[in-house]
Write a structure and sequence with these properties.
Blueprint: H1 4-34, H2 38-64, H3 68-90, H4 95-119
Helix pairs in contact: 1-2, 1-4, 2-3, 2-4, 3-4
């Protein structure tokens, strides 16, 4: 288990990264729609939203005391499978945008964690 202060920091990072992911998803949808490509924006936004779930998965697993190393591959596979399933519904030509959205979400989460670390 992690200390109370560390748990509070994890909460703050997850909350910040989720909000930033939702903002990034809304921006990508708005910009692509203005450019006349709403499906492109929707695919990227969906990937970002799916990717934001990674922070919540990590938070839950850390709270349970499960080592992150043991679950990393399973989390990545789960998120990728979810993105692929949605991509199949939207269309095969847009799966890469959903996967790119996953990557954007991970960059946002990493940036949020870095911000929290340098805040001390």
């Amino acid at each position: 288990m992690i200390e109370r202060s560390a748990a509070h920091e994890v909460d703050r990072v997850v909350r910040l990264s989720t909000v930033l992911c939702l903002v990034a998803a809304a921006v990508s949808l708005a910009v692509a729609s203005l450019a006349g490509r709403p499906l492109v924006g929707a695919a990227l936004a969906i990937g970002i939203v799916i990717g934001s779930a990674n922070g919540h998965m990590v938070q839950r697993l850390v709270g349970l005391g499960v080592p992150l190393v043991a679950t990393s591959l399973m989390r990545i596979m789960t998120l990728t499978a979810a993105a692929a399933a949605v991509g199949l519904l939207i269309g095969l030509s847009h799966i890469w945008l959903i996967i790119a959205g996953l990557g954007v979400a991970q960059l946002i989460m990493s940036g949020s964690a870095l911000r929290e670390m340098t805040r001390r």
